[in-house]
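seq:
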Amino acid sequence: MINLTDSRCTEAGAVAGLWRPRGRRAERGGRLHPLERPKFGELLTYARPGDTVHISEMFRLVRGTGHILDVLDVLHRDRLALRIHDGAFSAMDLTARHPRTGELLSTVKFMVQTLAAAGELQRDLQRELTYDGLRAAEAKGNKGGRRPAVPTDKTDAVRTAYLEGRSIAALARDHDVSRGAIRTAVADLLPEYTAVDAGTPAELLVVLDMPGKVADFLRAADLAPVERTALDQGVTVRRGQGYTLRVSATPMVHRRLLAHCQPLDGAPGTSAIPAQRKARREYANRVNDLGE
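struct:
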């Protein structure tokens, strides 16, 4: 995020393109020099002497030592102050200059060069590790991205084959898609989706976040088809090093899934793993909040 401190801050932040209002994507500069980025140039044109440029994190704007020094020179020329709110540069006064020469203090320049070099090394290492991981996954036959869905022009053929007795696993192999994609295509034909009487109100679906440790345990458990479908159609939400599974199911299915993971609390005479027990209780609290 970049903006100014005066009453024009909201407008200037949008002009800079480095923070995004709701519904808009921020401009991504990549390795482009910050002074060559059109939106940042518009911000410098809009700013007035005495304004303060706020940056959420330095590497949102720059990508190397030379970039940082060039930006500091331009801000000094235009008599603009700089404040960085997060990251290694947040505790430094990058505008400190020698009172006679007007150049950056040697200590400031040294710290800028050191921290920028460390940040550039970290980004390069992350990029290399990412590419290594992608190549290793490709060598194993794994493909990135979303799993393929059943093409629209083949949906009728899949549904007809399922009604003729073809299994979901066989259909998934035939069409080179996941079993979940086949289940989605034939969802209304599955045994658990039986028609209800017109006078019987259907039970509404409820979305609950299931801890990843609970989801991992249930995937290896013996589940009914309706429970397995709800689990397979859950949406994975990454949370730090772990994840949660956003499951849409009726309250009855949630209670049955909760009953399946009872062993995570520990059986008599055995000790439970604390992290799994905590995850199970978190899910139990959410299911119990649904009421009867």
